[in-house]
Write a structure and sequence with these properties.
alpha+beta, Jelly Rolls, Arc Repressor Mutant, subunit A, 7 helices, 11 strands, 24% strand
Length: 229
């Protein structure tokens, strides 16, 4: 498969390991909002996104749902096959049409043991996911204003998906406002309220699945001003 050469770790594999990946992987296409994997579907495969983006979610014991991450192309969607989390149920959904390479999870574990460069790549990807989630959780506190959380989330999405057009930044993230709220443990109504404030201040404009930031620096300054209010 020529698509395998798009994997970011492909060059660090030996020829024997490349053959093993070729024999134990497949390229799959997913339509927007299609389930990529769930508790009973495809959870024991590693999913590498080569086109599109995916939202990764978890249900906890009390059935609360949080969105762990929005994963762009060139990144891994699932870590659960190699990290045992029995009390949590992870699932993923395509936010737009996707092409994904799925690789047998046991082979991934074997490669992590055999190949230090591949292992380093995997741990770096896991650390990036972990740091993003912890950063968001650190803002879930009574002393943190919802306005700061929403702006921080917009900044995170801008870094991952933003496209500069002059002084403005277009963020085509594909998330609904309910999904944005799930990422920062807030209600949809509270997120919508802040988005309206930002629009009224002419700092952003937005549609159902995208945000246009007028000026990133002014948006940051607004959040800092609100923090001191």
């Amino acid at each position: 498969m020529t698509e395998l050469k798009e994997l970011p770790f492909w060059s660090c594999l030996t020829e024997h390991q490349k053959d093993a990946v070729s024999e134990n992987s497949q390229v799959r296409s997913f339509m927007r909002r299609e389930v990529v994997y769930a508790e009973t579907k495809g959870l024991y495969w590693m999913h590498f996104i080569i086109e599109g983006r995916v939202k990764v979610c978890r249900h906890f014991g009390d059935m609360r749902e949080i969105i762990l991450d929005v994963v762009p192309h060139g990144r891994i969607a699932s870590f659960q096959p190699i990290v045992n989390t029995p009390d949590e149920v992870e699932f993923a959904e395509a936010l737009r049409n996707c092409r994904i390479i799925t690789i047998n999870a046991q082979l991934v574990k074997d490669l992590m043991q055999e190949n230090p460069a591949f292992s380093s790549f995997m741990f770096q990807q896991m650390a990036e996911r972990y740091n993003k989630v912890i950063s968001r959780l650190s803002l879930v506190h009574p002393t943190i204003l919802i306005r700061q959380q929403v702006v921080s989330l917009i900044m995170e999405l801008a870094e991952e998906f933003g496209r500069k057009v002059g002084d403005e930044t277009i963020i085509e993230h594909g998330l609904s406002q309910h999904e944005m709220a799930c990422m920062i443990h807030r209600t949809r109504q509270s997120v919508t309220g802040v988005m309206r404030q930002l629009k009224k201040a002419d700092l952003i404009n937005y549609t159902r699945t995208s945000v246009l930031v007028r000026d990133i620096k002014k948006l940051k300054a607004w959040a800092q001003t609100m923090a001191g209010a």
